[in-house]
Protein 1
Amino acid sequence: MAGSEYALEVQGLSKRFERFELKDVSFRIPRGYIMGFAGRNGAGKTTTIKCILDLVKGDSGSIRIFGEDYANNPIGIRDRIGYVSEDSPFYEDMTAAWTGRFVGKFYSRFDSRQFAGWLDRFQVDPGKKVKELSRGMKVKLSLALALSHHPELLILDEPTSGLDPVVRSELLEVFLELLQDENCTIFFSSHISSDMEKIADYLTLIDNGRILLSEEKHKLLDGWSIVKADNRCKSPELDALLCGKKEGDFGYSGIVQDGAEFRRRFAARFPGAEYRTDRLTLDELLVRLSGSQREELVC
Amino acid sequence: MLALIAKDITVQKRSLLLFVLAGLFMTFVFSMTDEAGITAMVMPVFVVGYSYASRSLYEDEKNHALRLILAFPLARKQIVRAKYVSIALVFLPLTVGFWLLGRPLGFISDSWELAVLQLSAVILAFAIVVSFFLPIAFKLGMIRAQTLQRFVILGLFAFGMAGGYVFTRLGNNGSGPPEWLKNFSNHISRLSPSRVSLVLLLAAVLIYVLSAQLAVRFFERRELF
């Protein structure tokens, strides 16, 4: 099973809390690719990641990593995973160098020289205490630790949130380098959709604990489009094709997956009338799909 | 596991030194009173040992450092066992140190056998307190468990004091303690202090090990948000 073509497979994962629920979360990442995991704050991204890392136990569903059932070999699998958390969980009074020595004792493939090299590249002072590092530096330390044990799957939970654009761009470059130089798959959660658009090969959108879409990025963004039309050209059969519909005083807009069908129905219902089509951004897709679920519109 | 034990001690190096200094200060204060007795050893040892144990758990939860450890290729039972071993490794030399200090200062019995019995009793008492404290902390997390633990410790003290009060009253009334207790204490008094010390130490080990097993169960089921 070690030869599975998927680095991570989540199937039917559900977890119920008092005020929130993960409902039948399913997606999978082929080896060697970056998957962006996007959603609003509180959509269920971190909870899903915590289930993947076994910090939280799912009520049902399965998680397979490198083709292996996670529950059967959690220790062996964790040795092959790098995890970067949004809140940099370190001992604040200890130095970056001590943190590296400490973490290195637990991973079979930890490379101390490489760790020193990453710190140097990221300009993190190894002698500085963690509490003296800025948020960006802590993320870099976290990444240096995760990369130094040669992970085959790198799980990043909102690593770029709260960072300035220069540091964010620097980190995104590192992720791209990793895919070229190492046998690494990256699962990358964020609510910053521009980061996803830059580097992700696959996108999974989550909202209110449900997966809205999980697809190759180019198929998603090329397949969906945004249509804008006059309010005089409204009809229930067009509405049935629209997701996240918004109405103004003069016109309405929505996103459609099957643009050709929309065009056919529109021309048949309103001959001679016109509508506008724009290319969809991930931001817009996320906002519209999240909105459509909130308003319980048919998609 | 060794790396986790070393981490516990390294992370708390400075605070541990401060706790020990506070303990020595307490010993010094007690040495100025005439009737301090074994209390002059028990109090500092409990304060230092308990502070180390709770601080050690707190350091893991502060800034979610426990999440870092849980992402390591480690079984949760190793994390729990390392904590128990680290607390024992700090507490035992500390207790023996204060015990050795207490002898020339007159806090401890002059008889070696009785002095060892006193040492064993202190170790058992600490093992009981920590054995309540650690499973709760591993179940709820140190920060949430703190309030509950205060009640547990107060409860243990209240239970001890109430027991003492009841037996004093029974003694004063002339009827004395119940028959089974008389028989039990007669039986104990016939045993040599060394044998009682051994029983106390074995009881301490047994309680501590059982507590560790309970803590492992709790921690394996715990969800970390």
Protein 2
Amino acid sequence: MNESGLERPQERVGTSIWAAAGLTLARDLRLAFRKRGQLVQPLVFFAIVTTLFPLAISPELSRLRDVAPGVLWVAALLSSQLALEFLFRDDAQDGTLEQYALSGQSLSWLLFAKTAAHWLLTGLPLALMAPLAGLSLGVPVASVPGIVASVAVGSVALSLIGSMGAAITLGVKRSGALLSLLTLPLAMPVLIFGARATELAVKGESYGAPLELLGALAVLGITLAPLATAAAVRVNLE
Amino acid sequence: MAWTWFHRLGSPPYIYNLAARLTPWFAWPATLLMLAGLIDGLVLSPPDYQQGDGFRMMYVHVPTAYMSIMIYTTMAVSAAVGLIWRIKVAHAVAASCAPIGASITLCALVTGSLWGAPMWGTYWEWDPRLTSELILLFLYLGYMGLRSATEDVQRADRISAVLAVVGVVNVPIIHFSVVWWNSLHQGASLMRLGKPTIALSMLIPLLLMLLAFTLFFVAVLLIRLRAEILSRERTASWIREVVTP
């Protein structure tokens, strides 16, 4: 499929890139809110995973407090993997992605809008939920802003890495395990800096440095990941 | 014009024959250099003043660790070449690199672990280098898993090329994040190899082994590449001329 042969810029009418992104985002949000049950599943999963640790390690809050940052981040990383497999799958099957590719709009931009919707539906709720789980593990109330900030920023990078993985495995049937094998190694820097920021927040120290590194990863993801995602989607549409 | 040599590199029969001709030129020097390096390293070079004879693991460990990264770079570069200029042979090179890279990475981990047991008293340490090497192994395995999960060869080529290129951007990030991760946690690690002075009598066998492993990799790559081309072009007519004696 040769993109330049299909695109006819002089005939492009109307829709600006912002409007196109807005429409894509709104469509994904609307579709997601029609299936509310699925929407809360990652959150419930996150809650269950954090519940497992007190049962497995010890119910003593002093011990849980030490492992809380790691527990929160591993749980957040795993829950962000849950919805990924279906990020592009339905749209690939019903031909929506092909229409995106043919629309004359930048495919990477539209896919970025879809990823943004994914973050609004999973990353942001996780960031709001993480302090609750943290408090149940005995972290001090004062650390709540740090936890919210680190999970919110880190999950941006996680969503973008995940969107690359989802696009790459689009052509693979039952891609769940493979998707995790591909995305988790790439997500390790996010885990390292995220857990570090949370740990410093829990200890009441300044968590600025790791949070800035998380922000840098998120910005790098925003600039590069949509390009890779679009390239992978194009290959899988061929 | 002068570009014909470049175009010929994209032709599977030409590369198949070229690989066949080049293989001995890499395989024999690799064997000889490896023998020389092993004899020099295991017998002739003096024992380390601290580690005794244990340090001799270095002559296998350091080359494999270096190769694990070099093979990944080779794989990613040829995947990118295949993706950008749509050269099938470049994809075949990338596909042949992955299993070699994965086994070399495993060798580096195993030899490092065996070396660590007497020196550090533990087989595994969550040291930055060990951790990023382990993640590199996961990346290789992911690449191979993706290839084997995608049935159509052309699609497998292009989609795994995207992954390899993404990986090459991310590998340095992973590496440095892992380094910072550990340096934030604890002080200097036990592993202090490389940068400082190394005696000439130890350096020479090490360089011999590095060169030997590089040539070994090229030789194995050429053999694998021929097998890969054979399996991809199995319906092409030129194969019959090559295979029938």
